[in-house]
């Protein structure tokens, strides 16, 4: 079962997470890792096609490449139309969401509930592939309640593979759609990594990325013995600094020793630019609260960047005031 993948640009990726992986977090994350493959939050076809200004949902900074647009929907024609627009914005991949278990998504008959309709998902893949030149991928669960067996998973993947899917990202848990919240769906259903490994055995030519419960690089490297790529979600958001050496560990780049303080300084031009556009400082700074996770002063850091009174300052003053306070704290502790 041992698998030795070549280094693809998506060998390590950051999971799409609603309300978390917006363009502000992705820009901040790029200050840590230039190579980790990024995904947008899920954007519904309706949000794109019914908007007079789709850039509101599709805008991103050029430093975010490589980056995939994740689409949510269940109509092959509408997905194709949205994908065309996404490709015109320069996204490197179109990803179809067949894994989200939220009530909001279920009410629109897409997300994880589509796993019970493999032929429809295959049609979605096929239709989008006829309209765009970039890779078309699917992110899905290993099953849903009522369709939980490996045979069900195998049939689902067989259908979308025959439709021409370029890569699949598999969250190694089923989604329990009845009686379990989205938050609990991320932890309660047991992880079944072996099912994802087995998929790779049955579909050796299909690139497969594993997702779910992967907390660190040691775990990621273990999974890469059996599959082609690893996607990390909440662990990346809650402790982003661990990705400082992602480019070294997974892509052969030179190791980095960039201190956290330097990352904050590098964020200033972006913060200034966005605040000049009218973006509230909080909408950006809420995404950097994990930067000092696990180190001395983490609590003070989170408290500072969560306090609205600091957001009345200029971008430079917000950052420099914190760095001055941190230096004072160091001196105080040293005495």
From TrEMBL:
Q: What is its EC number?
A: 1.3.1.91
This entry's Gene Ontology molecular function terms read:
flavin adenine dinucleotide binding; FMN binding; tRNA binding; tRNA-dihydrouridine20 synthase activity; tRNA-dihydrouridine20a synthase activity
Positions annotated as active site in the UniProt record: 100 (proton donor)
Q: Which residues form a coiled coil?
A: none
Any keyword Calcium?
no
Q: Which cofactor does it need?
A: FMN
State the similarity comment. Belongs to the dus family. Belongs to the Dus family. DusA subfamily.
PANTHER family per record:
FMN-LINKED OXIDOREDUCTASES SUPERFAMILY PROTEIN (PTHR42907:SF1)
What this protein is called in its record is tRNA-dihydrouridine(20/20a) synthase
**To which species is this protein native?**
Leptospira ryugenii
Protein's gene = dusA
């Amino acid at each position: 079962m041992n698998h030795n993948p070549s280094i693809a640009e998506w060998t390590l990726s950051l999971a799409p997470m609603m309300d978390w992986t917006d363009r502000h977090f992705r820009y901040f994350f790029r200050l840590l890792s230039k190579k980790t493959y990024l995904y947008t939050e899920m954007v519904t076809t309706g949000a794109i096609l019914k908007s007079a200004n789709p850039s509101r949902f599709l805008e991103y900074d050029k430093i975010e490449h490589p980056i995939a647009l994740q689409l949510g929907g269940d109509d092959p024609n509408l997905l194709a139309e949205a994908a065309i627009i996404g490709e015109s914005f320069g996204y490197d991949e179109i990803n179809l969401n067949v894994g989200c278990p939220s009530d909001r998504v279920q009410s629109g008959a897409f997300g994880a509930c589509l796993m019970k309709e493999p032929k429809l998902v295959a049609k979605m893949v096929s239709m989008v592939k006829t309209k765009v030149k970039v890779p078309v991928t699917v992110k899905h669960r290993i099953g849903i309640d009522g369709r939980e067996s490996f045979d069900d998973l195998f049939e689902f993947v067989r259908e979308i593979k025959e439709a021409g899917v370029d890569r699949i990202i598999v969250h190694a848990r089923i989604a329990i759609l009845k009686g379990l919240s989205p938050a609990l769906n991320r932890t309660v259903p047991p992880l079944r990594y072996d099912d994802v490994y087995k998929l790779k055995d049955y579909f050796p030519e299909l690139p497969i990325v594993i997702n779910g419960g992967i907390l660190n690089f040691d775990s990621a490297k273990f999974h890469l013995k059996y599959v082609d790529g690893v996607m990390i979600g909440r662990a990346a958001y809650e402790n982003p600094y661990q990705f400082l050496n992602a480019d070294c560990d997974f892509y052969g780049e030179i190791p980095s020793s960039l201190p956290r303080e330097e990352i904050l300084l590098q964020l200033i031009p972006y913060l200034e630019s966005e605040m000049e556009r009218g973006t509230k400082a909080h909408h950006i700074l809420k995404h950097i609260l994990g930067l000092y996770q696990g180190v001395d002063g983490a609590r003070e850091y989170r408290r500072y960047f969560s306090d609205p009174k600091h957001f009345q300052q200029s971008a430079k003053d917000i950052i420099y005031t914190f760095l001055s306070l941190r230096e004072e704290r160091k001196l105080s502790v040293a005495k």
